[in-house]
Write a structure and sequence with these properties.
252 residues, alpha+beta, 8 helices, 8 strands
């Protein structure tokens, strides 16, 4: 006997997945979101750089706006490249390493930084939040030079999801379409992580709200606070998101 009960985790289509990449939804909700610049398509060389071994920055990307040091496998790494304290074996490895340089991309990144005084980078779907340790703790994830953008992306495991068609469209029921890697530069803000929320939607219904950060925040246990958050998010969803015409052209 057939059942009308939907699958718990139904198969998705590739076009549906693409509707949630940044460049698809941002133009429709830009007035509700953080100011951002989308750079696409990115070259195969840039994809190769992100997939290459080691943590290093492309030539010409250093601005010397901030200097800090990171001990990676007993070698000293700075924003201006690998230092002279490496041993002979490290120098031999450097000689074999492919040299990357992205002058046009550097210029686009510098323009956004000049406009907003700092950016937070991400790719189509994923952000390098797991690599916040690579930049100064005083302003984690804030990039003030192309080198810092590259360093943050290069140190992240999260963003590897966006680098291959196989990862992006894993589990889709139809063949993967063409896929262009994009770099998103968002205006950096010092956000209170305790106030970041994650919402869950199914069949155009808001079904759950949770805190995004895994740390415990006592004030979120207050019943009045929880009720106020739920009501505010529900109202915002109904007024600004659910009724948007964007969903009319979004594949199901």
């Amino acid at each position: 006997m057939s059942s009308s009960v939907p699958h718990l985790f139904p198969l998705q289509t590739a076009s549906y997945i693409l509707s949630f990449q940044f460049s698809s939804w941002y133009p429709h909700f830009a007035n509700l979101s953080i100011k951002s610049t989308i750079i696409r398509p990115l070259s195969q060389d840039f994809r190769d750089y992100l997939n290459s071994d080691g943590v290093f920055v492309p030539e010409g990307s250093e601005d010397k706006l901030r200097t800090f040091y990171l001990d990676v496998e007993n070698s000293l790494l700075t924003l201006s490249g690998l230092s002279d304290v490496e041993d002979d074996s490290d120098e031999e490895e450097d000689e074999d390493r492919v040299v990357f340089a992205f002058p046009e991309l550097d210029a686009q990144i510098r323009q956004s930084i000049k406009e907003w005084e700092g950016v937070f980078p991400k790719l189509n779907f994923s952000s390098p939040r797991d690599a916040s340790w690579i930049l100064p703790a005083s302003s984690p994830l804030k990039c003030t030079s192309p080198a810092e953008v590259y360093l943050l992306l290069k140190s992240s495991d999260f963003i590897t999801h966006d680098l291959t068609v196989e990862n992006v469209f894993d589990g889709c029921e139809d063949p993967s379409p063409s896929y262009e890697l994009e770099l998103v530069l968002r205006k950096w803000y010092a956000m209170d992580r305790s106030r970041e929320l994650r919402c869950f939607v199914r069949d155009n219904n808001l079904i759950a709200i949770s805190q995004r950060d895994h740390n415990y925040y006592d004030f979120l246990n207050d019943p009045l606070t929880k009720s106020s958050i739920a009501q505010t998010v529900q109202t915002y969803w109904e007024k600004n998101i659910r009724t948007s015409k964007y969903w009319e052209s979004t594949p199901s």
